[in-house]
Amino acid sequence: MVFRREHPDVPPLELPIHDAVLGEAHTYGDTEALVDGLTGATLTYAQLNAAHRRIAAGLAESGLRKGDVLALHSPNTVLFPAVFHGATRAGVAVTTVHPLCTPEEFAKQLRDSGASWIVTVSPLLDVARTAAELAGGVREILVCDEADGHRGVLELAASTAPEPHVDIDPAEDVAALPYSSGTTGVPKGVMLTHRNIATNLAQLYPSMPIGAGERVLAVLPFFHVYGLTALLNAPLRHGATVVVLPRFDLDAFLAAIEKHRITVLYVAPPIVLALAEHPKVAEYDLSSVRLVLSAAAPLDAELAAACARPPRPARGDPGVRHDAALARHPPRTARRAAAAARHRRQADRRDRDAHRLPRRAGPGPRARRARRDPHPGPAGHEGLPRPPGGHRRHDRRGRLLGLPPQAPAPGPAPGPRHGAVPRGPARPFGCRAVVAGRAHAAAAANVTAPRPCRGT
To answer: Which positions of the chain have pLDDT values less than 70?
Structure first.
């Protein structure tokens, strides 16, 4: 039987990823596309559109051809999308690399993906050099900023070579080679085609509509498919502004929300916990935020509700705005919600223990008791006389034969299912917390399944 969702199917988007994301960039002109949340440096849509095309020309002039792989080894920067889409426009696949990986881990990914070019930043240059020596086959290392002896991305952007026009098959040609985190084994590469990523953007839009005028804070890493798709490509596809932070620091995170009037946050559960409980949240005006979406890991429903609950006025602060759905939220409420959820889980365990069937005895005190009483009956039957032969007889559910059915053991009613989103009226302050047990799929599973990476 085939199960289908209630929403209509999304047709495959047969476009190269750079056209799917930046194909309409010229229409947004001088609108801010990317803003450095620390330095304030900006890149408009017109500049981003021109830069990624010039970078594509520079890469082609340097000798990169369709089928080559470029390793992008960088934290979040305003140049990250220019390099990524410049490489894909040149027909090159991009393997994104964790900026904190070791030289050995980096070298393994270089060998596994077949990358022959590296783009990094000067603080990570030593790691990239060592990895290139270990892996072998790397033709050149470029930097996004400046470093002696290495060409910079801005030099590529100054190229006067003609823009390459590469024949790309969106359904077959690989655009990105992200690597898994290695939770259940060694990291593995996933070959995502242009159609995979482009169609995934089309799938996201109905549930996460973002358009011109929205301001998204990008603190989750772009090397991860969650950050690459939801925080970078999806907003840029629809003319939103992406404010970039290289890492998560609570003070910098909150200051960026206040300064840049962020409207949408894509986060992971630890950040939701900080927003719900940390006292520093009360020091910043977060009233511009209308949506917080948590993904990449399970999120407790009570914690999500605590994060989205309207704030209480701070003592001695008559100017507190009550329409700020995340600002100045007292930590006590979140702790009470977490404690209530913990008590319900404990009650559920007690209830399950009361109804648990007898299990085969193992080593330890239970085994010693079992040797004295090889067939212990359910609770409350220990004093009953044994039948002839020295053994009590039980049915398959552990009940003594010949006795009336036993009522279920008393216990508290089970609480709500862990992780369930509480239903009720819409939250009155305009901000909603969205729970996603996992980040959106790396690519459209019903379009083209990701193929295993070479060498894995």
So the answer is: 310-345, 348, 350-456
